[in-house]
């Protein structure tokens, strides 16, 4: 059962009206319900969107009627007591429905639309088979059963499942091109063949995964706009992008690109998939998934989101331009730093003038650092999280990274005399002398280049200064570097 959430009528504007309409007329009669209002609504994601209302007379009769055709999909009749039952809206949109609140599936009678008639024949069949299975399951729970009896009941379940599967295939085959056939087919799992043997006689362990991935949409046509208005559409799309394709940015981008490019032909499909995927990856906290968000924004949202306003598009463009330089896999922007040595921190500890002196140290460009790994950690003394994480990072560096050709550039971001004083005092307090303490009191461009909106911000770079990790905590820094070393990278 799906959780139903009714949205305001204004939300119906999400779905564009059918351009070639001749209207619909759906007569209803609900036994045991009279002088009340019934809502006709369609599914979209896990919510329902109202389309029409019918006022029942004293005999429980009413009619949904309009000059515009309804878009194809799975709809429901929502009753005042919050009960509801589904109907299919496809090409035939003039029919009658008779039902009873005592039991919707077994009492449903449809006149004038064979597809809905078959839909409820299917539901009644499945309901009866479910009851049969529940009875067998109840017998299997008997702790006194012998193994032979258990096997007998398990075999009955297998046979029952085969009966259901065969029936589903029969209904699908007998209803080509219909919403009923498309919906039931979408519920079928991909039939994955056994893995073949390789030339050396071993089993290809990856075959079944790749077959499943490549054939995931064989049964589910996500370009069929009727499927958009069913309760399974979003789950199928998200199952593919979050659970079927490899969860690395390049693979996700390829999968997302396939979905969105094939959605371009239908405005409703494009709007739903674009908004869903754009927002999903905008909220993701998984490292590297910002590349997916940027890809969707740049290639599709800015070009095809006609509903978006210019102010939002301007902010999105700015965000893309700010974030692009520091995507995982890019070469980190080269920045100039001033290295302040240990001796200066020690000498300035009790020397107020030296502590305020902002011109101490020597210049160093990031790309001049020769280490196998470079950790660039932006922080501020006034940041509470920094005051906790920087000593933690220093301790981990001393214990686990110091002898592994790793350079940590601890970049303090507070400027001027006041910033220098705070920096000197904190480094001396925690004796953080044995990594490279840097700042730049002359230029603030690094903030824009690294899109620093908050601190701390930590980037891990390889020997070529390619970004391999970012926006992570101290423990993750160590784990990532140790993993890279173990892999020989």
What is the strand content? 15-25%
User: Regarding CATH, which class of the largest domain?
Assistant: Alpha Beta
Determine the CATH topology of the largest domain: Glutaredoxin
How would the global form be characterised?
elongated
Mean pLDDT: 93
CATH architecture of the largest domain: 3-Layer(aba) Sandwich
Please explain how this structure is put together:
It is a single chain. With 489 residues, this protein is α+β, with helices and mostly antiparallel strands. The chain has four domains: 9-112, Carboxypeptidase-like, regulatory domain (Immunoglobulin-like, Sandwich), CATH 2.60.40.1120; 121-141 and 150-186; 207-326; 336-486, Glutaredoxin (3-Layer(aba) Sandwich), CATH 3.40.30. Helix content is 44%, strand content 18%. It contains 17 helices and 15 strands. It has helices at residues 104-107, 114-140, 147-174, 179-186, 207-214, 225-228, 233-244, 249-263, 267-282, 290-304, 310-323, 342-348, 352-356, 384-401, 416-430, 445-449, 474-486; strands spanning 24-31, 37-44, 47-55, 61-66, 73-78, 84-89, 94-100, 109-111, 336-339, 362-365, 373-379, 406-412, 436-439, 457-461, 467-470. Strands 10-9-13-12-11-14-15 form a seven-stranded mixed β-sheet, with helices on one face. It has a four-stranded mixed β-sheet with strand order 4-1-7-8. β14 (457-461) and β15 form a beta hairpin. α7 runs antiparallel to α8, α8 runs parallel beside α10 (290-304) and α9 packs antiparallel against α10.
């Amino acid at each position: 059962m799906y959780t139903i959430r009714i949205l305001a009528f204004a939300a119906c504007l999400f779905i564009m009206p059918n351009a070639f309409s001749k209207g619909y007329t759906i007569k209803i009669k609900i036994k045991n319900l009279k002088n009340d209002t019934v809502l006709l609504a369609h599914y979209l994601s896990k919510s329902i969107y109202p389309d029409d209302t019918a006022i029942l007379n004293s005999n429980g009769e009413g009619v949904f009627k309009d000059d515009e055709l309804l878009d194809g999909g799975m709809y429901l009749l929502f009753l005042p007591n919050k009960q509801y039952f589904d109907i299919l809206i496809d090409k035939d949109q003039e029919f009658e429905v008779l039902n009873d609140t005592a039991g919707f599936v077994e009492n449903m009678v449809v006149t004038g639309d064979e597809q809905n008639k078959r839909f409820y024949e299917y539901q009644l069949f499945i309901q009866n088979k479910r009851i049969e299975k529940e009875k067998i399951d109840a017998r299997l729970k008997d702790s006194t059963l012998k193994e032979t009896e258990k096997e007998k009941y398990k075999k009955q379940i297998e046979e029952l499942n085969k009966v259901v599967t065969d029936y589903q295939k029969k209904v699908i085959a007998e209803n080509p091109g219909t919403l009923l056939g498309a919906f039931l087919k979408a519920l079928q799992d991909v039939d994955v063949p056994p893995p073949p043997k390789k030339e050396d006689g071993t089993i290809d362990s990856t075959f079944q995964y790749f077959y499943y991935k490549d054939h995931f949409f064989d049964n589910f046509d996500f370009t069929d706009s009727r499927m958009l208005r069913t309760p399974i559409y979003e789950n199928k799309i998200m199952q593919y992008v979050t659970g079927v394709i490899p969860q690395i940015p390049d693979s996700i981008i390829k999968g997302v690109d396939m979905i969105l490019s094939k959605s371009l032909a239908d405005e409703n499909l494009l709007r739903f998939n674009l908004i869903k995927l754009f927002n999903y990856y905008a909220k993701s906290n998984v490292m590297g998934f910002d590349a997916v968000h940027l890809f969707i924004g740049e290639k599709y949202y800015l070009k095809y989101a006609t509903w978006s306003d210019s102010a939002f598009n301007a902010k999105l463009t700015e965000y893309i331009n700010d974030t692009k330089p520091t995507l995982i896999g890019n070469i980190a922007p080269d920045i100039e730093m001033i290295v302040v040595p240990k001796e200066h921190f020690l000498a300035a500890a009790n020397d107020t003038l030296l502590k305020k002196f902002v011109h101490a140290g020597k210049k160093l460009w990031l790309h001049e650092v020769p280490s196998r790994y470079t950790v660039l950690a932006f922080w501020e003394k006034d940041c509470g999280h920094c005051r906790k994480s920087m000593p933690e990072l220093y301790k981990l560096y001393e214990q686990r990274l110091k002898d592994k050709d790793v350079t940590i550039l601890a970049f303090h971001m507070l400027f001027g005399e006041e910033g220098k004083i705070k920096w000197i005092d904190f480094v001396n307090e925690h004796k953080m002398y044995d990594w490279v303490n840097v700042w730049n009191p002359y230029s603030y461009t690094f903030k824009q280049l690294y899109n620093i909106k908050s601190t701390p911000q930590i980037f891990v770079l390889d020997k070529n200064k390619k970004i391999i990790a970012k926006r992570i905590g101290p423990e993750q820094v160590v784990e990532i570097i140790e993993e890279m070393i173990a892999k020989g990278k």
